[in-house]
Amino acid sequence: MRTSRRQFLARSARLGVLLGAGVPILNACGGDSGSSGSKQTDPIADGLEPERGPLRIVNYADYVSPDVIADFEREFGVKVEISTFDTDTEAIAKLASGALKADVHHSMATNSIGNLIQGGLLQPLNRSYLPNFANVLPAFTDPWYDAGAAYSVPYTFFGTGIGFRADRIDPAEVAAQGWDTIWNATAFKGEVSVIDDEREAFTMAMLRKGVTDINTLDREIIDAAVADVIELIDLVNVKVNIEGYKDIPEGITSIAQLWSADLISGATNYLPEGTGPEVLGFWHPPAGQYVVSNDAMGVLADAESPVLAHLYLNHLLDNDVSEKNFSWVGYLPALAKLDADYVIGAGYVPENLRNCVPTNDDIAQGLRFEPLGPEGDAIYEAAWSRFTAGG
Amino acid sequence: MTATVRRARTTVWAGFAAPGIVWLVAFFVVPIYAVMAVAFGSIDPLLRTARPAWNPLDWDVAAMRAVLDRVFGGDLGRVFVRTFWFVGLALAGCIAIGYPVAYHVARKAQRSRGTLLALLVLPFWISYLMRMLAWTNLLQQDGYVNRVLQWFQILDAPRNWLDGDWPTVVIGLVYGYIPFFILPLYSSLERIDGRLIEAGRDLGASAFRTFWHVTLPLSVPGLMAASVVTILPMFGDYYTNSYLTSGSPRVEMIGNQIEFYLRGSSQPQTGASLVLLLMLLLFVLMVYYLRATMRAQREAER
To answer: Where are its TM segments located (chain B) (predicted)?
Structure first.
């Protein structure tokens, strides 16, 4: 249910009134899950020859470097076909119904992975094809969403904080106020935004009040968070979007709830000429109150080229390939080599945005969006619908 | 003509209509039934995908009931009312700007008609989305709109047009849909028999009275058709307001809620129920339109 910048970009490319809304419905009508062919329930055997392709990947639009894909095609002499989706929900619906067949799911939301495994959509990985798994940050080798990383490898990771214009609001002031910065930003009316995602926005309100059990289903806590977020409409004329990565560098937005990776990519790509990265600032809560999220890659159970799919995952875990990919997508890979010192030294990240790279402590103590179950999702979605409808 | 020949001819004509009927069934009736099956169906508890109920006996109306509760006296009701307001105001804007244009092209422009028509079609060359994106640039704080208004001293300081105010959304809707409004209206105005207008003037009516009592009533069917063509897509619009306000909750329309529930939530039944409700509403408007055009036609024939 996570939305993202990639989703926004992809969505921008689509146009349709109710026709657009009808597409997922029709996709959903393909039948119950499990309508596809043979499914791999055990890891593939060791030492198999790679298939001749094509390798079919599903991913958000513009979320992997074309050069990285071209390198893989050259190295293994195969064609890679990428199908794109806009939301995690949409990808699951298409894969479950068999409307979309693929070998690799490039960007799974971590809170869906448990269901994908249980629903039999993913196959367990054979680590013998993944020597580059050794490059993965230790914090992600046994992730909370997939014990022992049996079914997935991490792709990119990022934390949720506040991105702001350091030339308009003093970073010390933001640090002193924390999440209250957003509620206190009455001087920046109309220039404040929150992430277009119900979990992110309501969690922010919980953390502001000191609630760290962000996966709670306690109605009182959720209702209070919803009321606080609704308050932002009148207080600061809040916007709900995922455009902070360009709106902050361009100066349209002054203060935004933001994914750390968005500011890195914004500093590289969206600062107007003559404006340096020193106008940007990022704040995040201390470890233990900081939500750190990641996307993950997996091989689908009905993959026709499972060996090739494993090799692709391994390709993306290569330090050099990953660096190349990072320089294009702006989202940090979960590899040990590309730590803050490295990416700052290599000039990918300006020094004043060092805190956009979550530290090992941040990751280890990071808060996670765990699955809430159908009832929990329904509560959050109804509240989100109420907020976006104007409160 | 014998009865057999007549019957054969009817069959031939029915044959001609067949592809159209097949098309309608395949791309209209079936999808609507699919929407109903989703709205009254359930969801997969694990993957949260829609489990449509194809058999009407299995239909579960819980989602629809919840939606109705929220529409009548709840938060969604306000979104419906807001959508109505926006569409109504945008339609008024289309009439105010579009009618004189269509009238001029159809009745007054002689040599320039071809050029003007080409200009009217021109916006269709550019995708709707591109035109909206262009507006977001024009309306920015340091954009051309503010610069021009300040240059003419209409504004003292730049106005934040993209701030989530309703006028920007209404202006966007008018701008986006006005070509759809002008063209059908033009073709209806152009067909008005010039002799009727001349007769009005010959009988001593002023230009205005002739327009009011002859041209305007005769153009009502065209006006209705143009209005229907524009407001139907406006009711389902969800990108104009998103683009022109960067996603402000103050201007959310019903199309945004449908999009959220169908694409970003685990409750496609709620989204599908909203689709059905909106369709029902538009259906009522359509019925009204058809009855009004028939009445107008009868009056014109009298």
So the answer is: 12-40, 84-103, 115-134, 169-189, 210-235, 271-290
